[in-house]
Amino acid sequence: MFKKILIANRGEIALRVLRACRELGIKTVAIHSDVDESAMHVRMADESICVGPASAQSSYLNIPAIITAATLTDADAIHPGYGFLSENQRFAEIIEEHNIKFIGPSSEHIKMMGNKIDAKKIMDDSGVPTVKGINDLSNKEKINDFIKNVKYPIIVKAASGGGGKGMRVVTEDDDLEKSIKEAKIEAKKSFNDENVYLEKFLTSPKHIEIQVLCDSHGNVVTLGERDCSIQRKHQKLIEESPSSVLNETERDKISDLCRKAMKKINYEGVGTLEFLYENNEFYFMEMNTRLQVEHPVTEMVTGIDLVKEQILVATGEKLQINQSDISLNGNSIECRINAEHPESFIPSPGKITQYHQPGGLGVRVDSAVYDGYSIPSNYDSMIGKLITYGSNRQEALKKMTRALEEYVIMGINTNIQLHQKIIKSDEFTKGNYDINFMSKFN
Ligand code: ADP
């Protein structure tokens, strides 16, 4: 077992990892930037170390400083959380070179799935259904054939994409060239990789993803699905498990394919296979080789602590859970609480002048903010996650309605009211929504 883990992250996810470590009897090291000196993850860790100034580039993305921090504090493993360096192949590689364990898959697996074109090819080869697409954009004739075959609309996507960046939906020939050019510029700027590809754009799919957990002995389990169709600007806002549209046969079928694919590539750690789901068909989009923001809804319905399991498999332990041990009980919903203007979505950093978080049976808040905390402007605007659990969807919804009412965050703008409106909307209540929900919502 690890003695000490350095958590290369901040905010709620740093706390989430820290809590799992504490329960496993593992000491923790927090890293922080200078503006995060009084952040909760720093206060709660056994040790902390400043890795640079406020900008993420100089601190939470500063690989030499983080490796130095791990060496100085004698950490034997690094947990990357999500975002920042969690899917950075070079980071995982350097950690391995320093004989520190990266809590995640091997750098090869990160690389394999980091390129969405390669990832789709691998899944295709394993029998997992994928969205129809074309990767080679150098041949105009081939592009024309592809479009003739799948028909508009299509979507231009960045091979190294993430966070909804570098995407353009195209509805007619006249816009194609311009959209490819624009997507390339955005992809180069955001991911330093201008490689883009085309995909059939599905007009009213759901975003449904499957959680996998694999050890280093070839054991693979899946933990059901999460429906993440409530998105704005291609970014998730509300997630739930299970999805209200899947039946057991469909769930078992797609889960089985995911397990086979993970076995085939010898994947290790936690991961998520993201799909679009339309007309009862699944289409693989990409795989995230890390813990997801929305992992708590899976934990609530399976009763399995994904972070503890992730740490345990990283030590080389065999999974103690069999597929037959896993069942989805009840329903869980997560609302991402963002410090942002509810309509313009412009971030709203600043001091929280009053804070009261909801509680009670079936209510979980994963957040690192507190009364008097100043939200810096340098990082993501997500400041917490409100998760509810009920023995059925109706109950989870009621709890969410009650918990959102109870949540008080003063001094900054948040999207709490927006969540209240979404949760009570007819379409959401019925579970009958797709990825276009937010664009039609007002
Ligand atoms: P990122 O890694 O940037 O989040 P994804 O490939 O996961 O990108 O896609 C994010 C979201 O963009 C999806 O959940 C979906 O809403 C939309 N999207 C991506 N590809 C397609 C497609 N082929 N058809 C329709 N919507 C898509």
Proportion of residues in β-strands: 25-35%
Strands side by side in the biggest sheet: 14-13-10-11-12-15-20-18
- Name given to the CATH architecture of the largest domain: 2-Layer Sandwich
Uncertain residue segments: none
The kinds of small molecule bound in this structure are:
adenosine-5'-diphosphate
Kindly list the characteristics that best describe this protein.
alpha+beta; binds adenosine-5'-diphosphate; 5-stranded parallel sheet; 3 domains; single chain; Dna Ligase, domain 1; Rossmann fold; 26% strand; D-amino Acid Aminotransferase, Chain A, domain 1; globular; 442 residues
Walkthrough of the structure:
By secondary structure, the protein is α+β, with helices and mostly antiparallel strands. The chain folds into 3 domains: 4-103, 3-Layer(aba) Sandwich (Rossmann fold); 132-200, 2-Layer Sandwich (Dna Ligase, domain 1), CATH 3.30.1490; 206-440, D-amino Acid Aminotransferase, Chain A, domain 1, CATH 3.30.470. It is built from 15 helices and 21 strands. It has an 8-stranded antiparallel beta sheet. A 5-stranded parallel beta sheet has the order 3-2-1-4-5. A 4-stranded antiparallel beta sheet has the order 6-9-7-8, covered by helices on one side. Helix 4 (89-97) runs antiparallel to helix 5 and helix 12 packs antiparallel against helix 13. It is globular. It starts with a strand and ends with a helix. The model has no long low-confidence stretch (mean pLDDT 96). Adenosine-5'-diphosphate binds next to strand 9, strand 13 and strand 14. Adenosine-5'-diphosphate (ADP) binds next to strand 9, strand 13 and strand 14.
